[in-house]
């Protein structure tokens, strides 16, 4: 059951990164591609893994790893498109719900992984918990579906790379796909223009905070990926509701200091979020039965 504790740790670290993201994106997000590119290019740090057992594992392994990384880049792009039309909290919860569903469906077809009765019920409670923590927005539903689909595909193929190799090779080759797909987009003048304009207009303080935040997120995702290697990818992803529970708590604690990370709390919203956290708690406890 180590994967559960690793997932909890990862989601707590990612909750911190999410709150910082919420601060960075509190103003409008005019260039979703540039933001996704900035996130992806930092994954070039995966080259430090080369001395630790990275090997060429064949064309099929490389292709699937590359598709996983590419799918992650596409998912980020559509996530930031959703954020542009709404806000970071609403868009992320919409995408998380759909990602959990797509991850399970794709894992059944690609990995042949099926959940037993108990874990299946836990999965349902965890996904319901995510739903109650946010709200579905029709105006971003198209982008949310695409982001959820590509996040699900990316995670399932990542799990495939772990099944047929080890942690180091799975991380390295999928990150190559992530960075490679973003660099390929530079052949398009519009993409280069978005990145150039973003760099010119970004304050130095925001740039530093962005890099620091992505380092924090990187630690969170590495821990999460290790949990995926050890556990069931559908259940690990369904535990994403725990992250939003942590975000809710952090927002309550730091909301008065940093108003742009505060949650809009009414009695109705509070009841809904507490209900969501309760569903997540029930689903979490069922994993231990």
Automatic annotation (TrEMBL):
Domain EamA positions: 2-133
Ranges that cross the membrane: 6-25, 32-55, 61-80, 92-111, 117-136, 143-161, 167-187, 207-228, 234-258, 270-288
Name of protein: EamA domain-containing protein
KW Transmembrane helix (keyword) present: yes
Organism name: Candidatus Yanofskybacteria bacterium RIFCSPHIGHO2_01_FULL_41_26
Keyword Transmembrane helix belongs to the record: yes
Keywords (A to Z) from UniProt: Membrane, Transmembrane, Transmembrane helix
Gene Ontology annotations for the cellular component aspect, listed alphabetically: membrane
Signal sequence residues: none
Pfam families: EamA (PF00892)
């Amino acid at each position: 059951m180590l994967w559960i504790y690793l997932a909890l740790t990862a989601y707590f670290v990612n909750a911190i990164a999410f709150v910082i993201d919420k601060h960075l994106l509190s103003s409008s997000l005019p260039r979703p591609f540039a933001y996704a590119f900035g996130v992806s290019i930092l994954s070039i740090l995966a080259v430090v893994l080369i001395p630790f057992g990275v090997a060429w594992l064949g064309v099929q392994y490389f292709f699937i790893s590359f598709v996983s990384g590419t799918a992650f880049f596409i998912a980020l792009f559509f996530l930031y498109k959703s954020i542009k039309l709404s806000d970071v909290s609403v868009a992320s919860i919409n995408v998380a719900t759909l990602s959990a569903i797509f991850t399970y469906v794709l894992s059944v077809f690609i990995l042949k992984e099926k959940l037993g009765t108990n874990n299946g019920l836990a999965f349902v409670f965890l996904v319901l918990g995510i739903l109650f923590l946010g709200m579905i927005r029709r105006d971003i539903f198209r982008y949310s579906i695409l982001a959820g689909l590509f996040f699900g595909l990316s995670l399932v193929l990542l799990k495939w790379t772990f099944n047929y190799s080890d942690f180091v090779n799975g991380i390295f080759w999928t990150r190559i796909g992530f960075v490679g797909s973003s660099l390929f987009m530079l052949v398009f003048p519009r993409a280069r223009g978005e990145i150039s304009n973003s760099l010119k207009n970004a304050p130095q303080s925001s740039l530093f905070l962005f890099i620091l935040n992505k380092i924090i997120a990187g630690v969170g995702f590495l821990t999460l990926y290790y949990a995926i290697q050890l556990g069931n990818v559908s259940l690990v992803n369904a535990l994403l509701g725990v992250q939003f529970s942590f975000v809710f708590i952090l927002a309550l604690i730091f909301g008065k200091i940093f108003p742009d990370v505060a949650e809009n709390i009414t009695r109705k919203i509070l009841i809904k979020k507490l209900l969501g956290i309760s569903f997540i708690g029930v689903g979490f406890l069922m994993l231990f039965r």
